[in-house]
Sequence to fold (199 residues):
Amino acid sequence: MAARRRFDRRYYARFYEDPVRAVDSEPERTRLVRFVLAAMDLLELPVREVLDLGAGTGAWGRVLRVLRPEARYRGVEASAYACRRHGWERGTVQDYAGAPADLVVCQGVLQYLDEAAATRAIDNLARLSRRALYLEVLTRRDWDTVCDQERTDDRVWLRTGRWYLDRLRAHFLPFGGGLFLPRAFSARLYELEAPSLLG
Fold:
């Protein structure tokens, strides 16, 4: 069972503001946002509004202001500290009742939720994602084989990727690279662009 994490000043200082041990960097985040926007451009999906559920320090918003300044960015955060510091709307990914957005971002959040809350969160992400969802969540395999354990929080629920995909499948088609398209998506996709079409 994962220990309850306090998302306070010390948490953000350790995982996001420490120049040596931060979980990622501004250049890494910029490359990621460029990738997601390029994929949506390829699919001819306009990005007029971005909803960031788990906005944290607002890294997505900072990059979007440069790459897509005309897009409206909404940050939602469960952390009272982050809301006070950055001005986000207070809310959780599993219960947020706001309006849908063209692109919903949920990065590094679901691993902090127990099974019931994570399942509710996926259902809510489906409601909120008008055109696409970018989802990043730490899995058991990621922890064992991919992530830098010195830079990554271990007070999380480590589930399998299959656990998440089984629940996402009801609502989304995986496009690749963490991008998921609502099943109501009407663009014509080649089979290998969305491998889940293969069955």
Observations:
- The chain has a mean pLDDT of 87.
